[in-house]
Automatic annotation (TrEMBL):
PANTHER family membership: FELS-1 PROPHAGE TRANSCRIPTIONAL REGULATOR, PTHR40661
Native organism: Humidesulfovibrio mexicanus
Classification via PROSITE patterns: HTH_CROC1
SUPFAM superfamilies recorded: lambda repressor-like DNA-binding domains, LexA/Signal peptidase
Cited SMART domains: HTH_XRE (SM00530)
Protein's recorded name: Phage repressor protein C, contains Cro/C1-type HTH and peptisase s24 domains
Length: 268
C-alpha cells in the first residue's frame, strides 16, 4: 500500500506547455465540461477529447475553439502572448461562492481584461479581484463500497479554487482532489464524484468524512471512534458499519489520509 497520496509538486504546478494542456486549463477555468465545450464549438465530444490529448484543430474550428474558451488564438495554439484578449469588454470572471457550488461558477463582468496567468508562484493564478489556488487531481481512486483503487499518483490536471475560500477549509498545500468509486455513500456522494482531501487533517472527528486507507483500499467514510476501534460508517443503509480493531493485526494497515472538506459533481 502506498505510504503517501500527495503528488509530484513539479508536475502539479508547472505552466501548461502543450496545446492539450492549454485547452484543459482554459476549459477548467471556464468551469465547463467537455460535452458543453463540444456543443459550443460545434464538434463531437471525441473531437474535444482528441484536442485535450494534443491533436490540433483545423482552420475555423481553431478560431471557434479559442472563442469558446475565451482565450487568444495565438496563446492557445502556440503558447505565445497573452492568455486573454485585453481589448475584450465582456469576460467571464471566475468565482467560488460556497462549497455547495461547483469549483468554478461563471458570472458576467464588463471591464478590460488583463492576462490572468501572472503569478509569483505557479500554484496560484491572479484574476481581476482575487487569487485562485490550483489543486492537483491525482489518479488515486477512492473506494466507497465496492469501488476500485488505483495506485497511480501522477497528476491528471489541476482545478482552481478561490484562495480566500479554500484557506478557510484547511491547508491548501496539503490538499488533493480524488474520484470516488462505489455507491456506499449515496444519496449524498455518488460514484465518480470529486472529493477535496486535506491531508493535514488526520485526527478523527465524529461525523466528519475522511479518506481512510485500509490495507490496499482507500475508503471515503464517516469516521467514529470506540475504545480500541475505528468505525467507518456509510450513508447508504445497505452497508453495515465497518469496525476495525486498532490493536489487532490490521492496525499497521490503517491510515487516515485526510479529511474531506468539499465534494463536487459533474453533470452529464
Amino acid at each position: 500500500m502506498p505510504s503517501e497520496f500527495s503528488s509530484d509538486k513539479d508536475n502539479a504546478t508547472r505552466t501548461p506547455t502543450s496545446f492539450g494542456e492549454r485547452v484543459r486549463l482554459c476549459r477548467d477555468l471556464a468551469g465547463i465540461g467537455q460535452q458543453a465545450l463540444a456543443s459550443k464549438v460545434g464538434v463531437s465530444l471525441t473531437t474535444i477529447q482528441n484536442y485535450e490529448g494534443g491533436q490540433y484543430p483545423k482552420g475555423e474550428i481553431a478560431v471557434s475553439l479559442a472563442g469558446a474558451l475565451g482565450c487568444t488564438l495565438d496563446w492557445l495554439l502556440a503558447g505565445r502572448g497573452q492568455v486573454f484578449d485585453p481589448t475584450r469588454t465582456t469576460i467571464e470572471e471566475l468565482t467560488c461562492e460556497s462549497p455547495c457550488d461547483a469549483p468554478l461558477s461563471r458570472v458576467r463582468a464588463t471591464a478590460p481584461l488583463t492576462p490572468v496567468i501572472e503569478a509569483t508562484s505557479p500554484q496560484f493564478i491572479e484574476c481581476m479581484d482575487c487569487q485562485l489556488t490550483m489543486v492537483p487531481m491525482v489518479e488515486a481512486r477512492l473506494s466507497a463500497g465496492t469501488g476500485s483503487f488505483e495506485t497511480g499518483e501522477s497528476v491528471e490536471r489541476r482545478y482552481a479554487f478561490r484562495s480566500d475560500w479554500i484557506n478557510t477549509k484547511g491547508q491548501p498545500s496539503s490538499m488533493v482532489l480524488m474520484r470516488v468509486a462505489g455507491d456506499s455513500m449515496e444519496p449524498h456522494i455518488f460514484n465518480n464524484d470529486t472529493v477535496l482531501i486535506d491531508q493535514s487533517q488526520t485526527k478523527p472527528r465524529a461525523g466528519s468524512l475522511f479518506a481512510v486507507g485500509v490495507e490496499d483500499v482507500v475508503y471515503i467514510k464517516m469516521v467514529d471512534t470506540l475504545p480500541g476501534k475505528i468505525v467507518l460508517k456509510s450513508y447508504n443503509e445497505a452497508y453495515a458499519p465497518l469496525e476495525i480493531d486498532t490493536r489487532g493485526d490490521l492496525a499497521d494497515g490503517i491510515r487516515i489520509i485526510g479529511r474531506a472538506v468539499w465534494i463536487g459533481r459533474e453533470l452529464y
